[in-house]
Write the structure tokens for this entry.
Amino acid sequence: MVILEANKIHKSYGNKFNKQEVLSGLDMVIEEGEFVSIMGASGSGKTTLLNVLSSIDKISNGTITIQGTEISQMKEKELAEFRKNHLGFVFQDYNLLDTLTVKENILLPLSITKMPKKEANQKFVEVATELGIYDVKDKYPNQISGGQKQRTSAARAFIHEPSIIFADEPTGALDSKSASDLLNKLSELNLKRKATIVMVTHDPVAASYCSRVIFIKDGRIYTQLNKGEETRQTFFKDIMKTQGVLGGVQNEH
Amino acid sequence: MSINQLIFRNLKKNLKNYYLYVFALIFSAALYFAFVTLQYDPAMDPTKGSIKGAAAIKAASILLVAIVSIFIFYANTIFIKRRSKEIGLFQLIGMTKNKIFNILIVENFFLYFGSLFLGIFAGFSVSKLIIMILFKITGVEGIATLRLSTNALIQTLIVFCAIYLFIMSMNYVFIKRQSILSLFAVKSSTEAKIKKVSILEMIIGIAGIGFILIGYYISSKLFGGDFVTMNELLIAMVIILASVIVGTYLFYKGSVSFIFHIIRKKKNGYLNINEVLSLSTIMFRMKSNAVLLTVITTVSALAIGLLSLSYISYYSAEKSAENYVPAEFSITNIEDAKRFKEALLAKDIKYSEEIIDVIQVDVNVENILDMSMEGMLVDPNLMTLAVISEKSTKDTQLSPGETLFTGYSDVNQKFMPLDDSGSIELKSQHEVIPQQLVGLKKDTIVSGFFSYGGLPVAIVDETVFQRLKDDLDPSIQKKASVYIGIDILDQDQIKAANDIFKEIGFTNIKSYDSRLETSNYQKQNMGLMMFVVGFLGLTFLITSGCILYFKQMDESEDERPSYTILRKLGFTQGDLIKGIQVKQVFNFGIPLVVGLCHSYFAVQSGWFFFGSELWTPMILVMVLYTGLYSIFGVLSVLHYKKVIKEAL
């Protein structure tokens, strides 16, 4: 089942005289239960793509449909409503509220939906144990490690079982051990909960945990790689190769 | 780009960004200049009246300098903190610290003195309005003229130059001490680290509330008879002040976060958006601002308390005059009374008259006294009281062994509590007449001249009165022994009668009183007090409101990332605003409520010295204060609205 469909999306910044096109007619389809990563060099438009897909930014042209609902035409209020029910976020800099404990941070999305307390608590216990942060539930973000913070952030994204989870460089600020921990947990949750995850990264290792990698260049899809039956190692090598071809600067003779 | 250009551009940019600093300056300068203008204005002389009045104004102007400088310092700290990044950038491109400091000096010079002159101009324009208000409340008739006083101008300039130098040295220290890195990071390091609520904090929290309650408890007992000597009273007052102030500090340091912690614990992690935005942030921020909030609370309590007290005495001026002078006019000489009456008749003013014989007798009240008089100035065995006969009153019937006390006021009740029955002794020169006290009444019958300004007056049976009168102790008698009360029948003619009273020169005779004069005198005295206190109160209200508002502006910048997260999670702007409103109710409400409570207990403990009405004037002052104060809360919510809108 298709969960997200982007059709010829354009996004440009600046004014009439100085226009900078970041996304130029990009098409994309994501199926339910997929773990997709978006890769590309700096300035290729990855983060902009993630922002427009996740309704935080508006597109200039085209359509984006999530679970059959077109979000590109929605009003601010409807968008907030949509985000709270259908989307989850994991960010590079964790984006946890410093004044709330781990548990309070994780339960935040449920408090918007006004879920009964008991049910919420049960969900919390489930997701926190899965991510291995149950022990630190009463600590504040500045008392736990970066890896724990990012897992807290992930738990917050998963707890309300959104249709799709967006992750922006989730491993960007983590050391390699915490990063692989987190990625393992993410793929576990992806399999176990059939959660759809879209992740932006420039780290080939992180991308190799996904089932599909989309490469972007200059606001367009450059190529895609499917993991299929490959092992993670060989998939990683494929990604490296593609990235090498993709390059940063075009070599014009 | 030359340095001058840089300064100029910075100035232009900062004027827009830091309008608050400019506002703070203009406001303080205007206020101070207006006040100093009043101080030097010759039109003020009649209201100053005595040396006391002039001293009050002088003291107030010093206090004003203190408030204004704290206010400007605070605004400056926020101002420089916000610019720390810019300062760091200048250093990064190779400017020396001294050069940066020079830029700041020049820039601030224009900003500061520009606003100062604007402020002086504004202050000059409103000073006429202010002086008109002053005349109105003190009842002085005069014409307010607008006059630029050079003295006032010089004084204002000197004070603000001193503040400028001080601010600059503060900035100098700030720049000197910071490294480039810390200047870039200064924004995020100002608030205390978030930690879990510890046991120590709980103890602090409970202790804070405990101290405040102890202070309140002692204050309610202050004039209740438990503390009688001057020393004890003084110690009690110091204890009250100390425990309330320390308690307030601990309250902000621990109690608030402790209470909020309990509430949060109950929620078991499941917080709704209002709680996320209010409880959790206030819990941590109140702590780091404990000193500031304590100062704000204490001084607002002081302002509300003083305002209430002075308004109480202004409000009840007429009533206290009535207590002191029971009739419109009181005269203690038959001849003089006759002259006055003739003058009244000549002007066709109708009057009624009451003549009462008053003698002074030593009374032993030891048995009915409700407290020990040790260390007091008055000897309960020999208290000299005025005595009148039952015949002189309209509705009192006493048997020869009975005595009734009248004119038993609220102050008496506090300082000299008497039982309403019991045995007393009236001592004339040679004999002692035992009497039974049958009651205490509040009405005053003779003027304060006879009752030593407010002691009770004894009413006895006619036969006893004659016995006492025949055997008087001449050493304790007053110069006069007859009270003549004259009431004017037509209320509209009181003023004319008063003019006659003045014309004959009776106002200069100490034992003669006019109720209107007494009331006016008190109004004039208290009016000036009220004006000075009101001016300071208003200044403080506005400065503390502004400081809280600045703080909220600062906080909103710090919290902007949180709003971004929350909006990404799907909270609408409306949800966030609702949460912010709750937060502001706490942020502004807690200091206000604590301040109101403090002032309530302060006023409660001693209001009876100032007048006879407590509730109406006090509540009026409190409501007014709360109303003006809330404006700042509303303004801060509006500011947050803007920040939240821009957050995503």
